[in-house]
Design brief:
The complex is a heterodimer. Chain A is 75% helix and 0% strand. By secondary structure, chain A is mostly helical. In chain A, helix 7 runs antiparallel to helix 10 and helix 9 runs antiparallel to helix 10. Chain A is elongated and about 85 Å long. The model of chain A has no long low-confidence stretch (mean pLDDT 89). By secondary structure, chain B is mostly helical. Chain B has helices spanning 2-33, 35-39, 41-65, 69-88, 91-94, 99-103, 105-125, 136-156, 161-189. The model of chain B has no long low-confidence stretch (mean pLDDT 88). Classes of the chains: A mainly alpha, B mainly alpha. The interface between A and B is medium-sized, with 33 and 33 residues.
């Protein structure tokens, strides 16, 4: 019978309690003299990040070994030192084995669940930035930014840890790098949206921009639905045509010299905003392709 | 007494904001100057994330402590400055050919030093009475980079707008720092 425990914290707690129970049983029933190092070692080597049970568990075991060797070398006899090392060895092996084999961390699930609030915050932030650009609503953008800052503090950066599951390493790291890049793009857009642009210039690009905004939001929600494993995720629409329309409308109002000499600050900022929107489009497309 | 405590606390918080921003911008510039970061993006992202996280933590802590109008204005400028830094360093995503960084290595290094010096100066002055920052050196470095762009970079890069954006954002940092200096002078007068 397969026992399904979805919550990752519950799985970790059950693993640790089981390891401690087995460790205590071995400690009192098998060893000549109970040694606190056995259950302690079992617990210590289990404190690893998701997808890194073996490597980090092994490093922790070596660290504990060095500390115990250092202290027992001066304070205990040779036989006591052997007993401590024996208990440490059993505890270490037990902890690593339980961590890897019994209700192991589902790194892929934890990773997906960690990114959903980030993408949600990004979608709201993008909308707020566009409202700032066209309607000067600075407070909404500030609030949305605060939310993004909060969620970015909890990114699953344990995928970058040495020893992270080799089968998931490349894909997960790539995805996280792109997610991080989206955050920086949005901060850049916020800076560019703060500038006071001429109303006639903004009016020329407003319609295609607002159309594009809806599609960008839908894109984010579509990716969120896929990460949340929804059966019918929201359909994603490519908004590259809307970006081309924005560029076309912009070029009707502004003409730049090929040498790019004496370009007005306002135009540079707006061109950069459109450029950044294209970069956002490219990254979202890459994220969607990575999830296929 | 409570006022004194708040003043001391807010000065410390502003100091931490500038200091963490300085560390963040240092890491961002390291991407152009260190080959190891260009060849292993995972290593760079891991290092960058630690700095971003520390910076956001300090921002959130400072935000809760703001009381007076001028404190909120200074903090708002700190937020603007951080957004400009992220906009500035979009360069690393836009330039496909990393050998371009070798051409601009000296100028980028000087820009890094100049910005680090300015932010460190602001961090120290946020906890003292006077605030005077030397922006001239930074402006000179921007002009040097602009000259390099006119001579070489815009001719070899795929899209010459890329470095134009970079230069524009360097000027944006300059403008924000000028406003910051005025705000600090007003704060210290009160």
């Amino acid at each position: 019978m397969k026992i399904k425990i979805e919550n990752n914290i519950k799985r970790q707690c059950i693993r640790v309690l089981l390891a401690l129970l087995i460790a205590l049983m071995i400690d009192y029933c098998v060893l000549k003299k109970p040694d606190f190092l056995l259950p302690f070692a079992a617990f210590f080597v289990m404190l690893t990040t998701p997808g890194n049970a073996f490597y980090q568990g092994f490093i922790r075991f070596i660290l504990l070994l060095v500390i115990v060797l250092f202290f027992t070398a001066f304070s205990s006899s040779i036989s006591e030192m052997h007993e401590h090392l024996y208990a440490l060895g059993i505890g270490g092996v037990l902890g690593i084995a339980v961590n890897m084999l019994i209700l192991p961390d589902r790194a892929d699930v934890i990773f997906r669940e960690a990114l959903i609030p980030v993408l949600n915050a990004y979608a709201n932030y993008f909308r707020a930035i566009v409202l700032l650009l066209f309607f000067n609503s600075a407070s909404k953008a500030s609030k949305a930014k605060i939310e993004v800052e909060k969620v970015l503090r909890d990114l699953p950066v344990w995928v970058f840890a040495t020893g992270f599951d080799v089968s998931m390493q490349k894909g997960h790291r790539y995805f996280l790098i792109k997610i991080s890049e989206v955050g920086e793009i949005l901060f850049a857009m916020h800076h560019l949206a703060r500038f006071s642009y001429e109303k006639p210039l903004l009016l020329k690009i407003q319609k295609p921009f607002l159309r594009c905004t809806k599609k960008v939001e839908t894109f984010f929600w579509g990716i969120i639905d896929v990460l949340a494993l929804k059966k019918n995720p929201k359909p994603i629409e490519d908004f590259s045509n809307d970006i081309r329309k924005i560029e076309k409308n912009f070029k009707k109002v502004v003409s730049l010299s090929p040498e790019l000499m004496d370009v007005e600050k306002e135009y540079v900022y707006l061109i950069e905003f459109i450029y950044t929107l294209k970069e956002l489009h490219d990254i979202l497309l890459k994220l969607a392709m990575a999830l296929r | 007494m409570i006022n004194l405590f708040h003043t001391h606390r807010i000065k410390k918080s502003f100091h931490d904001c500038f200091f963490k921003m300085m560390e963040l911008q240092k890491i961002l510039f390291q991407f152009y100057l260190e080959k190891k970061y260009q060849t292993t993006p995972a290593l760079f992202e891991k290092t960058l994330y630690k700095q971003k996280r520390a910076f956001f933590r300090v921002l959130q802590k400072t935000r809760k402590q703001l009381k007076s109008k001028i404190e909120k204005q200074i903090f708002s400028k700190i937020e603007h400055l951080s957004d400009i830094l992220f906009s500035l360093h979009q360069l690393r995503f836009r330039v496909r050919d990393v050998s371009l960084y070798d051409i601009a290595k000296l100028e980028l290094h000087h820009l890094d030093l100049s910005l680090t010096h300015l932010l460190l100066h602001l961090a120290r002055f946020s906890s003292r009475q006077t605030a005077s920052i030397d922006l001239e050196n930074y402006l000179n470095q921007i002009h040097a980079f602009e000259a390099l762009n006119q001579r070489t970079l815009r001719l070899v890069v795929n899209d010459p707008m890329i470095f134009l954006f970079f230069i524009q954002d360097l000027y944006a940092v300059y403008d924000e720092l000028q406003v910051m200096e005025i705000l600090y002078e007003n704060k210290n007068r009160k």
